[in-house]
Amino acid sequence: MKLRRVLGVAIAGVLMAPGVAFAQSVEQWIEAGRRLRADGNYTQAEQVLQRAVLQYPENSRAHAHLCNVLDDLDRLRDARQACQKAIALDNQNAWAYFLLGFVAKRQRDYDVAAANFQRFLEFEPDDAVTYSNLGQVQYEQGDTAGAIASYRRAIQLNNQDAVTYNNLGIALSRQGNSTQAIATLSRSIELNPNYALAYYNRGNAYYRQRRFNEAIADYERALQINPDFQNARENLQNARRRGR
Asked: What sign for the dihedral angle of Cα 70, 76, 78, 80?
C-alpha cells in the first residue's frame, strides 16, 4: 500500500499531460506511455507505465511496454522481470518474447536470448530484425554456421540493412571465407558509404589475404569517418609495416 502512495505522488505531475490525466483504460495508459517513449521522455514513460501495471496488474501488454522503456533506461534486470511477467500472464504475447530476447542479449545471456528470439519467430517467421539479432547471439555462442544462416535469412527478408551485411561478413571471415566476406562487406558499404565498421572489417579481410594496400585504404577510410577508431589505427600501422 505504501508503494502505491509513493508512486502516486511521483507521477502526479506527469498525469497532467494531455491524454494521460483522464486515462480511463489500460489501453489509454499504454498509449500515453508509448507516446512519451516515442518523444524520448523515458523517465516519464516509465512512470506512466508503472501506473498502468499498478492499476492493471494482470495486463500482459502493460508489462511488456514497461519492459521496453526500462530497457531504454538501461535498467536491464528490471526490464527482464517485466518481460517475464508479461509472458507469465500471456504466453502468446509474441512481442514480449522478442523484448526478453533483446534484453537477455544485452545482458550477454545468449542462451536465453536465442531461445526467446526463436520463440518469437514461431509467431512471426518472416521478421528480418529478429533473424539479424538471432545471428548476433549465435555468433557470440560460437555457432558461426547458425549465425550465417540467420543473417542470410534476414537478408532474404530485407536486403537493405547495412548492419546485417556487415555482421554476415564478420561471420564469413571467422569461417575462413575471406573472399565472400569481402563481397558481403562491400555490399554493406554500398548501402552505407559512411559505415566505418564495415570498412574496418573489410580491411581485416583484405589483411588476411595479404592484400595490404587495400587493407590500408579501408583502415584509412574508417579513420576518416571515425578519427577515434583506435583498432583501425592500430591495424593501419600493422598493415603499413607488412606492406613495405
From this structure: positive
